[in-house]
Amino acid sequence: MDDNADWGNFLANTLPEAYHTELANMLLQMNRMRTLAGLLDASAKETFYAIYDYIPADKRLQVYSAMSRMDAVDWLSTEEEKQAYCSGKQMDQYDENKFQTLLTYYPEGLLPYCAEIINTASNANTDLVMNVFCAIKTTWRAGNILTSDDKCALSEILEVVTNSLYSDKWGKLCAELYLTNILTEISEPAERYFFEHPLEFIQSLNFCKETNDGKFWNLFSMYRLPTSAYTDLDALKHFSESLIAENQTDLLGNIYGRAIAGADGIFPHESIRELLEQFDSDGLDLQVYVAYSDDRGARFVLDGSDQMQKAAKFTADARALSISYPHTTAILRQIADDYRREGQSDRLYSEL
Q1: CA 305 to mean position of chain CA atoms
Q2: CA-based nearest residue to 276, from 210, 198, 205, 329
Q3: Which of 303, 291, 289, 281 is closest to 352 using CA atoms?
Q4: DSSP letter at 162?
Q5: SS3 letters for 182-210?
Q6: Pair 215, 184: CB distance under 8 Å
Q7: Cβ–Cβ < 8 Å for 304, 272
Q8: Is the bond leading into 189 cis (omega within 30 degrees of zero)?
Q9: Number of C-beta neighbours around residue 127 at 10 A
Q10: C-alpha pair distances (Å), 220 with each of 33, 249, 251, 319
Q11: How far is CA 297 from the centre of its chain?
Q12: How many CA atoms lie within 13 A of 55 on its CB side?
């Protein structure tokens, strides 16, 4: 007989309740922990109480993980055991008892349900999902990780929040989830929140620099302007001036260097070109160039023609903007020179 919970369920439903405790002891002696879990799942709580103290501490998690009934949480004696019991369990359909139990001990298990209801716009659903996020933040401990299912559900939720449910409260919460390492990558709601609250962005960056060097460099090198930044020049200027006032010109240059192209297909976006002229800073220009170069990532080395085509495009772009945007022109010429050197080097390498 395989050691699985289905066998335990079968035995519990086949044999009279009077035999369950004796059978549970036999399974315990045989080290059939998953079968025992299935038996306890379908037995009266008296069976659970009778066998509970005899389950070795190092085997209890194995038993808990294979059980599904939620009323057993109330039978456990410590908070740690209750958390261990709930870990890995999920709620697919709403059940008040299961919801409250998971919210207290394993709120990550509610993410799949949240992903289902978040698409049905209502204040009640939105508040429920936000409560789950807050509970995850509150109960999160170092060493916790999200399962692949949790991550997929979280991505679905954040996409809906980004597209239709964004609020300052949502943005702040997503920023906190990122800063506490629950989210390993910065989400667009968090990016928007930091954009609209630049001083909090700088404070968060400084906090990470003191406490988590990896998080600091992730935030410094990966933060991108939200979509809303490109449609509000005044807001973008306020964000930029706030960073400059706090001696964060390098950070601003890094962010500009990861900007999207403009409507004309030329990097960077028109709003950033305008601000580069207003700020009139060679140091900022240099940082934009460096950030753009760093953001290009790895590439395949071919015969150099691909890089020469890019060099020609950036040269043409620089020429097109030379009168209106001299600072942007200088950046584009540097990028074009890089592509040209790479193209020449690639061609020589391909001929070896």
Answers
A1: 38
A2: 329
A3: 303
A4: I
A5: CCCCCCHHHHHHHHHCHHHHHHHHHHHHH
A6: no
A7: no
A8: no
A9: 10
A10: 48, 12, 7, 31
A11: 21
A12: 24
Token digits of residue 159: 């996409």
Query: How many Cα atoms are found within 13 Å in the side-chain-facing hemisphere of 191?
Result: 21
- Output the CA–CA distances (angstroms, integers) from residue 248 to 93, 198, 236, 239, 284, in the order listed: 48, 11, 15, 11, 10
Please state whether 280 falls in left (phi above 0), alpha (psi between -120 and 50) or beta.
left
Q: What number of residues does the chain have? A: 352
Rounded to 5 degrees, what are φ and ψ at 29?
-65, -30
Q: What angle do CA 193, 195, 199 make, to 5 degrees?
A: 90
Tokens of 310: 């890019």
Amino acid (1-letter code) at residue 160: V
**Which of 158, 171, 233 has its CA nearest to residue 204?**
171
Residue 305 tokens read as 């023609």
**Alpha helices by DSSP H, 30-73:** 33-41, 45-52, 57-66
Name the nearest CA neighbour of 312 among 289, 335, 288.
335
Report yes or no: 35 and 8 within 8 Å, Cβ to Cβ: yes
Residues 6+ apart with CB under 8 A from 268: 256, 257, 259, 260, 261, 262, 288, 328
Helix 249-257 × helix 213-222 angle, to 10°: 60
What are 174-226's pLDDT values in tens digits?
999 999 889 888 999 999 999 999 999 999 999 999 999 999 999 999 999 99
Tell me: the pLDDT tens digits for 230-255? 999 999 999 999 999 999 999 999 99
pLDDT, position 224: 96
